[in-house]
Design brief:
By secondary structure, the protein is of the alpha/beta class. The chain is built from 14 helices and 17 strands. About 40% of the residues lie in helices and about 15% in strands. Strands 4-10-9-8-7-5-6 form a seven-stranded mixed β-sheet, with helices on both faces. A four-stranded antiparallel β-sheet has the order 13-14-17-16, with helices on one face. The chain has a two-stranded antiparallel sheet with strand order 1-2. A hairpin with a 2-residue loop joins strand 1 and strand 2. Belongs to the class-V pyridoxal-phosphate-dependent aminotransferase family. Csd subfamily.
């Protein structure tokens, strides 16, 4: 197998930045290969959470005392950091949510309910996570819309010719995943966006799996909405981002009612706040929002290009290594992939594989990965998924290979 070429990253130091990696699981050093589910958190993020609660704990946008002003300044600094991270035109186009799922539901319940009606069409793809299927099904049931699905080939690539055939003058919204959580496929989202815009449709991109692996530029993509979760980008859980073009956000009604999202309330009428606050009702997840800036700063300190290059080499190394295991079949061989490998072992259930690997201190994901329609298309119940991040190593991949040989021996 080809070894990793020289990288400017100090992988040993990066691993030291993540305290959770320094532990034994079932008597073995932890190998964490479940990064597509959630990434681990660097010390800088953990310190940011502690610092807020120890020094700046206060509500934001309301108080005039020192703690409130410091908390507000830090909260809004994250908004500007996310704007820069996505290359959004304005900070007001950044809405803080509770995660990717929440962001998709926000768009479905506000833009969808307002602008889609009977006979209008929504297009998604076979690769979607349930979070980018169910909200649109609910909208279509409520509003009488038609849900269409872009098919894939056996490698896990979208069939763009078929996508073009699905587009009509009734297509109002296209919502597709940037990167498949189950297969690692990188979708040609710029092409998808351009073709949707040609028929007057708006486009939402689910970036949950993309932001920690790909440099995102929402202006270059020209997407109308982009959503992601912080916890898959070395940040805390329970916090996400919705990017939306200003004109669309201003034309959409609020998602939730309460404090912060109002300008004036009377018993007869309420006037709503400007964006982004119109969509941020109530006390937000202040500590986690503030800590996200530390996660983005950490990514910037390593360099997005350096991270992507290193993870690409990990993927190539792991692909070659797993292909050498008799009876193992990699599921999903798209032309463009990020560092996710799903596979099946002949005659061995994926849950048995996961349990035996865990006994050896190796954490992987097993099951349908919240992509049941995709699994049905592939003719399988589920897979074992190994997903890599910048703190993983080829030595850990070698341990995975040995672990899988152990699985085969035990299940023979």
């Amino acid at each position: 197998m080809q070894a990793i070429t020289q990288t400017p990253l100090d992988i040993a130091q990066i691993r030291a930045d993540f305290p959770v990696l320094n532990q034994l699981v079932n008597g073995r050093p932890l190998v964490y290969f479940d990064n597509a589910a959630t990434t681990q958190k660097p010390r800088a993020v953990l310190d940011a959470l502690t610092r807020y609660y120890e020094h700046d704990n206060a509500n934001i946008h309301r108080g005039i005392h020192a703690l409130a002003e410091r908390a507000t300044a830090s909260f809004e600094a994250t908004r500007r950091a996310v704007q820069s991270f996505l290359n959004a035109r304005e900070a007001e186009e950044i809405i803080f949510t509770y995660g990717t799922t929440d962001g998709i539901n926000l768009v479905a319940k506000t833009y969808g309910r307002t602008y889609l009606g009977v006979g209008d069409e929504v297009i998604i793809s076979t690769l979607e996570h349930h979070s980018n299927i169910v909200p649109w099904q609910m909208l279509c049931e409520e509003r009488g819309c038609v849900l269409k699905v872009i098919p894939i080939d056996d490698n896990g690539d979208l069939l763009l010719d078929e996508y073009e055939k699905l587009l009509t003058e009734r297509t109002k919204l296209v919502s597709v995943v940037h990167v498949s959580n189950a297969l690692g496929t990188i979708n040609p989202v710029k092409t998808i966006i351009d073709k949707a815009h040609a028929v007057g449709a708006v486009v939402l991109i689910d970036g949950a799996q993309a932001t920690s692996h790909i440099d995102i530029d929402v202006q270059a993509l020209d997407c109308d909405f982009y959503v992601f979760s912080a916890h898959k980008l070395f940040g805390p859980t329970g916090m996400g981002v919705l990017y939306g073009k200003r004109a669309l956000l201003e034309a959409m009604p609020p998602f939730r009612g309460g404090g912060e999202m109002i300008k004036e309330v009377t018993f007869e009428k309420t006037t709503y706040n400007d964006i982004p606050y119109k969509f941020e009702a109530g006390t937000p997840n202040i500590a986690d929002v503030i800590a996200v800036k530390s996660a983005l700063d950490y990514v910037d300190s390593l360099g997005k290009e350096n991270i992507a290059a290193y993870e690409h080499e990990l993927l190539a190394y792991a692909t070659e290594a797993l292909q050498g295991i008799d009876g193992l079949r990699i599921v999903g061989n798209a032309k463009e992939k990020i560092s996710v490998i799903s596979f099946v072992l002949d005659g061995i259930h994926h849950e048995d594989t996961g349990v035996i690997l865990d006994q050896q201190g190796i954490a992987v994901r097993t099951g349908h990965h919240c992509t049941q329609p995709l699994m049905r298309r592939l003719g399988i119940a589920g897979t074992t998924r190994a997903s890599f991040s910048v703190y993983n190593t080829t030595d850990e991949i070698d341990r995975l290979v040995k672990g899988l040989e152990r699985v085969k021996t035990m299940m023979a």
